[in-house]
# Entry
Amino acid sequence: MKILTFVMLLILWSCKKEWSYNGKYNFEKWGEISTEFKFCKIGFNQSPINIDKDLVGEFKQNELEFNYQDSIIEKINQKYHQKLVFYGNNFLLRGKKKYWLRYIEFHHPSEHQIESNPHSLEMQIYHN
# Structure
């Protein structure tokens, strides 16, 4: 009986619906896949975000100063992206404010869209 229960649970687990950026369980269906994703249906500013070029501002020349140096990096393989965690004194300077580099994520395919077009790869750089 224990073996049968284990096999049934294994089958149910393997049939679990997975979210994706396109296809049957694309971002428009995330809120319906599972109660775990309920906020995807009722929340705001959910991925993917469409970037409209006409609404994006421009930085002035030399407004951002990148102060990155050789660092210890930890690579983390996650299901939907690769993550590089940086250990060191890397920062982005805007005016007098420093934004410390924490990690970079690579998403394949892209998580967000530009002018409603997805892309094959996206890099997100996280600072705080």
